[in-house]
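Section 3.1: Structural characterization of target chains.
Under the original work plan, the team committed to producing a structural model for every single-chain target entering the pipeline before any wet-lab resources were allocated. The record below documents one such target. The sequence was received from the expression subgroup and is listed exactly as submitted; it comprises 318 residues.
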Amino acid sequence: MKFEHRSQRDRSIFHAQPASSAKQRNLIVASLLFLGILSTCSLATSAQANAVAGQKPQAALLAVPPRSWVVDTVARELDALHHKGSYIRYRMHLVDDKGDRVRDIIESRDGTVARLILRDGKPLTDEQDKAERQRLNDMLANPSAFAKHVKSDDSGKKIADSLMRLMPDAMIYTYVPGQPQTGKNPGMTEIVLDYEPNPKFHPPTTTAEALTGLRGRAWIDSKTKQLLRMEGNIFQGINFGWGMLAHIYPGGTLTIEQVEAGNGRWIFSKFVERITVRALMVKTLNIKTDVDASAFQPVPEMSYQDAIHILLNTPLPK
């Protein structure tokens, strides 16, 4: 059970592609990795539901059909995907084929903005910082460029939304014997489910074909119905457009973890991706991405211009 989605976060899979086929591969990878548009997760679970779930012993929790947990968790993730009035600031550490970068990120009502603050574990040089400041100032001077970024992000959200709604029926879910807990959430009872493609599921769209080659395991908080961890394995090749648009090779893996970031807001804390994609029957991409998010703090609602000014006025780490 995976929930993504592309978000405003910078991921190599959306930047390491030739322009001629970037759009197609963006759709492909978004369909594979729609694991919750993670940088915008929020929680929308009633206190009454939490209390009822918290009172149930494990035997009672496991008496619930596994699919029911998936239905509720998808609902939570859809709430998170379209969250309103919840904004945070955090740091994102990204390692991919472009190097090792840390960004300071602020969510605004207009979209997410980010400033590069570390590269390869070192402070930016004066030249690098000057280029980053220029990029942000250009964004202030050219709102249409920022609007294009937001439009692209909205497209990813639509893909994520449509795929998440398919998850209860696209997969078969079973409880894992012994219910092995992650150990990272003391006091939480985690529901642990294995999933694999439902042979009766027929993908209604090209991007939905990504669901036919994925299986793995998911951990769900029994109180909030929030996804805590998800592991996915691409166990068989996945063709898009009969393989002419793209082919995802078997052997790929995906991992995501989420945490409560305060004020009932959940967000990704870790994302690891290892997949191999052949695009348009020509170029093969070996994608290796590691993302860690931390230092979450709520921020008031603001425009993207105000968010950029805050980033520019924040001293760089030494």
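The chain is about 30% helix and 30% strand.
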